[in-house]
Amino acid sequence: MDSKNKNNGRKWPSKKQWLQFFKVSGKKEKIAFGILFVVFIASISFLFHSFYIKNTEIVPDYYGHIKEGILGNPQFINPLYSSISDTDKDLVELIFSSLMTYDDNGKIVPDLIENYTVEENGKSIVFTIKENVKWHDGLPLTIDDIIFTINLVQDSEYLSPLRTNWQGVEIEKMSEYKALLKLKQVYSGFEESLVNLKIMPQHIWEGYSVQAMTSSNTLNPVGSGPYAIKKINYDKDKAISSISLQSNLNYYNKPPYIQTIEFFFFNTEGDLMDSLKKGKIDSASIEREYYNKSDYKNKTSYSLETPDYFTLFLNNQKKPLDNKDIRKALSLLINKETIAESAKGEPVYSPFLSSFYESEEPEKILSYSEEEGLNILENNGYIIKNDTRTKTIEKSSGFKFSSTMQVGSNSAEVRKLQECLSQDPEIYPSGNVSGYFGQETKEAVKLFQEKYKEDILVPNNLKEGNGIVKASTIKKLNEVCFIVPGEEITMSFILKTTNHPSLVRTANLIKEQLEKQSIKIEVKTFDTNAIKKVLRDRDFDILLFGIKLGGILDPVPFWHSSQRIDPGLNLSLYQNTKADSLMEKARIIYNGEEEERLNVLRELESLIIEDAPTIPLYSSKYLYITNNNLEGFTVQKIVEPSKRFIGINNWYIKEKRILK
User: Fold this and answer.
1) What local confidence, expressed as pLDDT, does residue 314 receive?
2) What is the pLDDT of residues 506-533, one digit of tens each?
3) Long-range contacts at 506-512 (CB < 8 A, ≥ 24 apart)
4) What is the pLDDT of residue 2?
5) Interval 585-611 mean pLDDT
6) How many CA atoms lie within 13 A of 122 on its CB side?
7) How many domains does one find in the chain?
8) Residue 390: which of 513, 244, 257, 520 has the closest Cα?
9) d(CA 54, CA 304)
10) Quick check: is 331 in a domain?
11) Would the pLDDT of 397 be above 70?
12) Greatest alpha-carbon span in the chain
């Protein structure tokens, strides 16, 4: 007998016999069997599931497609010129790589660089790049490509906006993957230049003229970033409607999980928002003031800190704004919290935006204080006159009567007396100016005394003039003769800004606040092109505009006296030799001596707050909206909009389980 069919000496029931079980079993036996069978299956399933869960882990899956909406159209997907356009920067950020990059909190970290050392107290950087980096066409990226890119940026013929930060920098090749950078002088912000430099392939661009560089291959670039261009789509007018990027499977950091990103380009914010609401696109950035959570179902919003804020530039060369007391008074009279709330932003009190750089807020700030602001104005002589705060500055001809004069006097002072009296024909009809005090002059003096009897005769108990020029007469002569009208300085300003709705609203709110204090404000708005001339010519009393500080705080472009002329960004025309000295010192302190640099910046910050060349108003976080199913987005701070894509190779839509 086959051992397989034995069970304690009995045959194992055949399939047919098993089927008879349900015919011969009673109702209770069938129920009991069913329950036992279900328990058995559940137990097996549970054991299998437990084993599966215990021995596998959840990881992102390589899957998915994102539709990203952008305001504006691409022009140059070329690292030499992409800094001009946010649209171009978005695409360049994904297609090309930098030597350094930012992390989720805006700190600079290596990207293409494997390791580096800083020598000569910051004047030299020796670095090695990763050896596994390949261009999208499969060729290796080497030091030659980096040297080639730097040479292009430094070449004045190509007019790259990056050129300023690379002047005087030398690069020396040490091997295929190692090089030395030499700076003429230490520059604490140089690491940011390594972030902004996107490396270009020498084997593609070598030998291209300026004309070819700006017209050829700009829409089909080869980079080394996490994504490469897959397809460009055009509308009926032959304008680019969308660009598809596919994941770079050879990306050196780690291939992106999301396989395709398609960028759709919009001409108006309204069209962009409408497509986002209707689900035609998955993600986009919109202005915070237009955001209403209920309009964006199944969406997640991210608020990202930026080093940008809006401020009032005060023209420090125009009266009365050339007086720092007046600038401080204006700052105290503006309620920044109300303005920030209206703009859906956060009030800013420091021109150095302490919150972004994680530094302490300065102890002394100009927060809203109506009483203190008005006291400063009144102490400076600004009183309300004809509904406007006005200061009158008395002027003098430089001549004052001082001597007693009577019949027989003969002097230059008598000549001045006759000149004064001759201004009124009813008092001195002949108008004879001889320098000799005769009877005719005496009669004129008597008439003068009687005209101003309340000031001359009454105090001296005289009923009529005596024709003798003494103390009371001298005093009145000095009041009415040779008068130069006093100069009146009114607190009446023209505030200029762009015609963007949020800035127009902010400008009118400032107007409302200041006019309550009898400070007149006329708001003038300009389109994007017209405001450029206002900035270039510094043609304003007060300017409402934005400041972009950058990843590493460098105050020089905004407050150093050398930057008062276009293209410098010292729009307030601020001058302070001590401030200049501190800025220059902060620039040449190597980042390895960070505490010393912070101390210099704190001192500079306090000085600028005290001088009040500008009035910081509010910052507004960058709002980025995505589908709820997007995971892996961890960015907290960005230096510019394109940096929202930091760590995009870690974004994912779908998960899967794999064996541990």
Assistant:
1) 98
2) 999 999 999 999 999 999 999 999 999 9
3) 506/310, 506/339, 506/342, 506/343, 506/544, 506/617, 507/544, 509/338, 509/339, 509/342, 510/312, 510/334, 510/339, 510/544
4) 47
5) 89
6) 15
7) 3
8) 520
9) 37
10) yes
11) no
12) 168
In a domain, 76, yes or no: yes
Q: Left if phi > 0, otherwise alpha if psi is -120 to 50, otherwise beta: which for 389?
A: beta
Asked if residue 370 has pLDDT above 60, the reply is: yes
pLDDT score of 5: 46
Q: And the tokens for 475? A: 């005093």
DSSP 33-87: HHHHHHHHHHHHHHHHHHHHHHHEEEEE-S--EEEEEEES------TTTGGG-HH
DSSP state of 656: E
| Co-location of 564 and 588 in the same domain | yes
Backbone angles phi, psi at 174, to 5 degrees: -110, -30
For residue 23, list its beta bridge partners. none
* Range of the structural domain that residue 514 is part of: 308-389+490-619
Closest CA to 270 of 532, 82, 501: 501
Q: Any idea of the CA torsion for 411, 415, 416, 417, to the nearest 10 degrees?
A: 90
Q: Are 134 and 250 in contact (CB under 8 A)?
A: yes
The pTM of this model reads: 0.81
| H/E run at residue 587 | helix 577-587
Burial class (CB in 10 A: 0-12, 13-18, 19+), 55: exposed
Query: Does residue 1 carry a pLDDT above 70?
Result: no
- Mean pLDDT, all residues of the chain: 90
